[in-house]
Amino acid sequence: MKADKFIKVIRYLLVTFFIIWGVAWLSIRGFKRNDVNRNFVEKTFILMHNTPDMIKEWFKSSEHQMKIISHDEMTEQIGKLTKFDKVNDSLYLLYYNYMGDEKGKIFFQSIKSGEILYSWNLPMDEIMQDLIEIDKKFNEKYYSQEINLRFSDRVSKNIPAIQISAPIMFKDSSIVFHCGILGYLYKLDKNSSILWKSKSLTHHSIEVDEEGTIWTCSVNLNNDFANRYGFRDDVILGIDQNGNETHFISLTDMFLKNRLFKDLIGSTPGVKNTYGLDPYHLNDILPIENDGIFWKKNDLFISLRHQSMLAIFRPNTGEIIWHKKGPWYAQHDINIVSDSVISVFNNNTLFTIAYIIADSTSNIAYYNLSSDTTDYYYSNVFSSGTQGRQSLIPNGELIVEETNTGKYIIFDKDKNVEAKFYIPFFSDSTNAMNPTWGRVYLQTKDDFIHF
């Protein structure tokens, strides 16, 4: 009898071993193969493997957006900087804050005094319903093999986790914004009613040119070349003030037409995120308002994080007229300083070494196209590995959004720290609401200017 029990135990162990081995082998083989070549069993095991991450996404809440603030004598809440005499009284911030109870607002507030000039109640229920539909479409396209990227990972799963990002206010007190990671662009009037929302998905920066065209980043799910080789295709998207698309420019098509794809993109190993291969990671589009030595009015500066590349694109001819990889790393947010000098938020991130280069910090890189030289400023003051914004004020002040830590830093014209501030988290004002690319404004005699 004991021998029979022993044999049964061995049999169960062997069966269990071979089942586990089979699952592991099928999972590994499935991960190694392109999604379009995976069979039903391999896709099932990969779905099982990804289930814990999917559950985590569903249960992300507003706590995910809270940043633990390290306080010092120069760090205060927004609106409580009156003891810092040198801080400009005319500086305002346009920003989003989650308010609890699944409500969210955008505020236009004095950075120093705290006076709130305007606020908008956001239609969070409608935004969430849009995200649910987007998520559903992504899953349908992924599992029907129309796309081989798990874009569902890029969609917020509940209202507290939505990141309302990069708002801009117009003269009539209307605003535009989007959901940061991936979602529609919305325009609200001064009474918080939706005027329109974009047809295409949007992400990262939003900028407006002198003619009122809104420039933002999008994705192209229908690029045959990108889908064939299994990578994400980003898009330069232009939208007019009535919500009509004026430009939808595929980066893949752009680099192919300029005969630069093979040398600049295809020759570089692409960064693989949770959703798949992401060779570009377009994060900033800056419309150029004046002619310079190396650019013309209406050209566009673009930033490709995963290539550590900046480029100038001319929409009316389809030409890439300039490009450069480094010496910035995983950069964000370009500013034009003069007719031949630009500044860029240098995250200083190497993709092979966690987030930040060892023994280093983020900084602002000033690049001179005439001399091909780069100077670095504000080093050893802030460190933001994956995001960030910089707002250069005409009097020489600079405001840096240190996004990954939740702080804003104000530097004077001599590059000294004037003050630091944060947006208070709704349920714990000692810590910060995750800043999602707030917009700095300067009040002038006649108007507000944004940066």
Task: Explain what you see.
The protein is an alpha+beta fold and 451 residues long. 20% of the residues lie in helices and 35% in strands. It is built from six helices and 31 strands. Strands 2-27-26-25-24 form a five-stranded mixed sheet, with no helix packed on it. The chain has a five-stranded antiparallel sheet with strand order 5-4-3-30-31, with no helix packed on it. The N and C termini lie far apart (83 Å). Residues 31-36 and 57-61 have low confidence and may be disordered.
Q: Biggest β-sheet: count, sense, barrel?
A: 5 strands, mixed
User: Mean of the pLDDT scores?
Assistant: 89
Top-tier CATH class? Mainly Beta
What is the topology, as strand order, of the major beta sheet? 2-27-26-25-24
- How far apart lie the N and C ends? 83 Å
Summed up, the helix count is 6
How much strand?
A: 35-45%
pLDDT < 50 stretches? 31-36, 57-61
The CATH topology annotation reads as: Neuraminidase
Q: What percent of the residues sit in helical stretches (DSSP H or I)?
A: 10-25%
Based on the coordinates given, report the CATH architecture.
6 Propeller
Q: Which structural class do the helices and strands define?
A: alpha+beta
Number of strands: 31
- How many distinct domains? 1
Inertia-based shape? globular
Name the CATH superfamily assignment.
Answer: TolB, C-terminal domain
Q: In angstroms, what is the radius of gyration?
A: 24 Å
